[in-house]
Amino acid sequence: MLTNARSTEEVALGIRRRVFEHTIRNNGGYLSQACSAAEQLAWLYNEELNLGAPTLPMIPKPFAGVPSAANPLYHTGAGYNGPAAPEYDRLFIAPAHYALVAYATLVEVGRMAPEGLEMFNRDGSSVEMIGAEHSPGMEVHNGTLGIGLSTGAGLALGRRRRGEPGRTWVFMSDGEVQEGQTWEAVQAAAHHGIDNLMAIMDVNDQQCDGAMASVMEVGDIAAKFRCFGAACVEIDGHDLSAMRDAVAEPHEGRPLIILARTSPHHAMAALGERFPRLHYVRFKSEAERARMNLSIAAELGIAPIDYSH
Amino acid sequence: MVEMVNRPYAGAFEAHAAGNPEILCLSGDLTSSCEIDGFRDRHPEQFLSLGMAEQNMMSFAGGLALAGFRPFIHTFGVFMYRRPYDQLMASVAYPRRRVRLMGFLPGITTPGGMTHQAIEDIAVMRSIPNMTILETGDATEVEGICAAADSIDGPVWCRVLRGSVPRLFSTPLKVGQMRVLSEGSDILVVTAGITTEEALRARAALARAGVSIRHLHLSTIKPFDAAQLLDHIGSVRHGVITLENHVTEGGIGSLVAETMADAGAGRRLIRLGLRDTYAHGGSRPYLMRYYGLDALALVGAIETLMGRSFGIGEADLDGARVEDVHSLVKAEAL
Lengths: 309, 334
What we know:
Shape of chain A: globular
Low-confidence stretches of chain B: none
Oligomer: heterodimer
Mean pLDDT of chain B: 96
Radius of gyration of chain A: 19 Å
CATH topology of the largest domain in chain B: Rossmann fold
Number of helices of chain B: 12
CATH architecture of chain A: 3-Layer(aba) Sandwich
Shape of chain B: globular
C-alpha cells in the first residue's frame, strides 16, 4: 500500500472542500455524495487499496474516442489507479454519478492534478460528469445502476482462477439494492464462493427522487445481503476506525459487503435544509448560493469561494 | 435425402473449448437445452452455472472477459438480449469484451411462442456498435460456429441451431464470406439460417419451370460485404428476394435494402419474413407456412417479381422435414 503523508481524515476533508468549491463555482453539483462518501473513498485510496503508481498523465488527456476496432489506441481511465497487475486491487465506482467525488479523491491522493477537476463536464474532456470507462479512475461503465457488482464478481472470479492475489473492490450506493441485478450478483458471488470480491456501500438513504423510504422502501438490507449469501457488516460510514475493523470481518467463501451508514449532509450542516432533495444540488437562488457558501465554507474551515468571475 | 446430424453443437463446443482454460462455458439454467450438458459433466472446471439470472450473467461475463477469459454464454437467444439489454450494452458491447453469445432457438424454430422466439434479435444486434453477428444454417455451420466466433476480437452474437440439424454444406463457416449456392440470372434470393433449406427445397421445381435463381446464403450478417452483394444484384434481371427467420424490419431484408439504397441500385426487392408481427407457438413447418417463411412463399414472391405463374404446389417441392415434437435429441419439447 502507498504510504501517504496525509491522514485519511485530511483526505476526506480535502474531498469535501474540492467538491464544495466545484459546486459553488458551477452553481450545482453532486455535493451530498461528497458529504456521505468522502470517508469511504478517502479510506479506500489512502489506506485500504493496494494500488500501483498511476500509469496515465496527471493532467487527463482529452476524450480520445469510444472503443471500436477503428480505435486501437483506446484505453480506460483505470491507469489512474495504477497498473492492472496481479497483486494490485481493482476498484469500480458502481454509482457513476459519484464521479465528481471520485475525481476529487484522485486529486487528494496525488493521482490526478487539480487541473483535472477543472475539466469536469467540459466538452471534449474525458473527465465526464457521469464517470465513463475512459474517465480518470474508471475501468468499466457503471452509469446504469446495479451492474457494477456483477462485473466485479466476474472479474474477481476470473482473477481467482488466474491465482491473482489482488482483490476486486466495488464502491456501491444503497439505491442499487432496488435493482434486481444487485441480488442476482450477490447470489452468484455466494454460489461461486467469490470471496476476493469486496464492496463498500454508501448507505445515505437518498436517491434521485428523495429519501429512499419514500421512493421505494428497501427494508433491512444487511439481513437481505446475508440471506443472499454475503458477509455483511454495518458501520457508521463517517467512522474510519469502524471501517478498518469492518474489513477484517471473516468472509471465507463469501463476498464481503460493508454497509457504511452515512448522512447526505455530513460536515455541511446547511445542506440539511434541502432534505430530502439532495441527489443533485443546484442552488435555488443567488441568495441561497451565497448563504450556503458562507456557512459551508466556515464548516469546512476555508474562506468562502469567490465565484463572482 | 439430406443427412441429419444430432446435436452438432455438443461435440463442436467440446472440441473447441475442452482443455483451453481461457474459454469458459456459462449457462443460464438451460444446459441440456443448449447441448452443453456433456461438456459440463466432462469439464466441470470450465463450466459456470449462473442460474436464471441473465442480467448478472451478462455483466459477470463482461468481468470474466476483463480478466482475459473468453466466456461462451449459453441460453435461448431471446433470454440473452431482451431482459439483459442494458447489461449487454454496458458490460459487453461497449467495451468490446470477447464474450461469445450463443443464442439458441432463433426465430420460429421453437413452439415456445412469443416469449421464446427471438424474432428481432438481428435488428437489435445490427444496431449495436462493436457487435459481430453470425447465423448458422446447417450442421456444418453449427460445427464451425465456436471457432468462427472465437476468432473475433470483440463480442459475437450467434444464432445457433440445435437438435436434429440438416447438413447442407461441406465447407466450414468462414467469417465475412457469403455462400453462393447458385449463380442464376433471373432472381437473386438471399437467405440465412433455416430459410436457406427452404429455398433449396424450391430449387428443383424452379429449375423445371425455367427460372434461373442466384442464391446467396449469409452466415455473417455483421460486418457485411456490401460490394459482393451488389455484384450479385447486378447479375440478375428481375430483382431480389430476401427470406428470413426474423421480422422483416432490421434483419437481412433491411440489410439488403439499405445496401441497395446506399448504392442507388434501383431494383425490385421483396422481403419475406415475419411482417411486423409476433408469431405464436407451433411446429416449425406450420409456422413457416402460416407466416410465409417457407418455400411456397418464396415461389410466390418469385412469381410476383417475374409476372408469371409457374403452377408450383407443395407436391412439387422437395419434402419438408417434419420433426417430432418430442425427440431424443432435444432436452425438452421447446
